[in-house]
């Protein structure tokens, strides 16, 4: 059996399958690498979003704590709290430092909606509507050296009514340093 000589174009096609296969492998490798890079970026974005949400909720908790202190204890002073956050999914435990300013009374007016003021026994209209301003700053601390990894500042208006405001609630107004901390 004798082989007939192949034409020139048939000889050129013998290596084309190998070249097409290599080209497909290169394209698939590039696609896999780009998908791995996108996935890694999305994971980082998710972790950052989680940290930002935790810092926001820590600042919101600072506003709620300041309101509770004012309602329960007539305490209008500044406060600072360090929140430990043990998390099994993180190799290092992280903390949030929450600092709240004094509650600054902005509006003090008789409570017109309070029926108790209209009764004859409270003729001095002792129950008031008091609006306070407050700024809370929450910092996310991480690592052994407590570096700040995230920061959130919230300013809130708290409206208390009906309210019998004690005189010491207005003492922070006289302190210029305490007023400078409140951000509007």
Question: How does this model look, in words?
Answer:
By secondary structure, this protein is an alpha+beta fold. It has one domain. The protein contains 4 helices and 5 strands, in the order ααβββαββα. The chain has helices at residues 8-13, 16-73, 115-118, 176-181, and strands spanning 79-85, 94-100, 104-110, 128-142, 147-163. Strands 1, 2, 3, 4 and 5 form a 5-stranded antiparallel β-sheet that branches. The protein is rod-shaped, with a radius of gyration of 33 Å. The model has no long low-confidence stretch (mean pLDDT 81).
Q: How many distinct beta strands?
A: 5
- Note the gap between the termini: 97 Å
Characterize the largest beta sheet: strand count, sense, and whether it forms a barrel: 5 strands, antiparallel
Strand portion: 25-35%
The helix count comes to: 4
H-E string:
HHEEEHEEH
Global Rg: 33 Å
Low-confidence parts, pLDDT < 50 over ≥5 residues? none
Shape: rod-shaped
* Proportion of helical residues: 40-55%
- Arithmetic mean of pLDDT: 81
């Amino acid at each position: 059996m004798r082989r007939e000589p192949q034409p020139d174009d048939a000889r050129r096609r013998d290596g084309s399958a190998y070249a097409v296969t290599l080209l497909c492998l290169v394209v698939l490798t590039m696609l896999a690498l780009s998908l791995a890079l996108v996935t890694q970026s999305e994971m980082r974005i998710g972790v950052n979003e989680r940290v930002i949400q935790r810092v926001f909720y820590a600042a919101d908790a600072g506003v709620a704590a300041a309101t509770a202190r004012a309602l329960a204890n007539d305490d209008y002073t500044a406060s600072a709290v360090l929140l430990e956050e043990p998390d099994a999914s993180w190799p290092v435990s992280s903390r949030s430092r929450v600092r709240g300013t004094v509650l600054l009374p902005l509006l003090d007016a008789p409570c017109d909606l309070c029926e108790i003021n209209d009764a004859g026994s409270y003729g001095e209209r002792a129950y008031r509507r008091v609006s306070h301003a407050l700024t809370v700053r929450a910092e996310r601390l991480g690592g052994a050296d407590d570096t700040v990894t995230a920061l959130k500042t919230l300013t809130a208006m708290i409206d208390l009514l009906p309210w019998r405001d004690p005189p010491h609630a207005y003492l922070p107004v006289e302190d210029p340093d305490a007023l400078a901390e409140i951000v509007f």
